[in-house]
Amino acid sequence: MTAPHPYLRYVAIGDSLTEGIGDPSPAGGHRGWADRFAEILARSQPGLTYANLAVRGKTSGQIRADQLGPALALQPDLVTVTAGMNDVVRRRYDPEAVAANIEELFARLTAAGAHVATMTFPDLGKISPVARRVRPRILDLNARLRVVAARHGVDVLDLFPHPFTADPRLWSDDRLHASPIGHARISAGMAHTFGVPGHEDWSEPLPGRIPVPVLKALGADVRWAVDHVGPWVWRRLRGHVPGDGFTAKRPVPRPVTVRQAG
Length: 262
What we know:
Elements: E1 9-13, H1 16-19, H2 32-44, E2 49-52, H3 60-66, H4 68-73, E3 78-81, H5 85-88, H6 95-111, E4 115-119, H7 135-151, E5 155-157, H8 180-193, H9 214-237, E6 250-255
Parallel strand pairs: 1-2, 1-3, 3-4, 4-5
Antiparallel strand pairs: 2-6
Helix pairs in contact: 2-8, 3-6, 6-7
């Protein structure tokens, strides 16, 4: 058992990344890095309770409007925040408004006495050809995240600089959401950020894999475009938002069941 930490109530807020999309749970639904991180914390603090208010597709403004109040009402001593990626991929992107939304989240949560942590976003352009168009936005958002986090004493798991995040095995078939391996790496990175022993290797490269032939890689790109990009564009044209009809998967803090590490 690792050395105990001081946290007794952990609340996660955010979008699909924190909800856990891309990491199916054996019990149904989604697990994700926040669930995994809660399990890491619970190994040394069995009294920990955990709530996850994140909902897929939500913008920074929606997270501020819909999740901040409920999170504060739960009186957490630890909160993680992921916000901004759904703003970045929209046609109209207002970087100053996004930064203001995120700063309000940080300011009000820290003012309430919670220890807050966030993360930068990796370079999705190395995984998804479509994402290369929004790379400048990701760079800008990450820079703004670092500034407002420093202003409010928020810890930052800085994913962007690490080359291992470009490994396709860390990403699900849609090349937008992390795979189970990716979620596990993020949870280990967050644990390392909090000084939890045993996660120092969180950013090490994955074991080598056989190179993919060029034609096979091109075929995979075509299938990805047909299976994921086309349907995504069609849903957007129809005004469909991924989070419509979904609610928080874990709105009430509950004790954490610690699973086998991995």
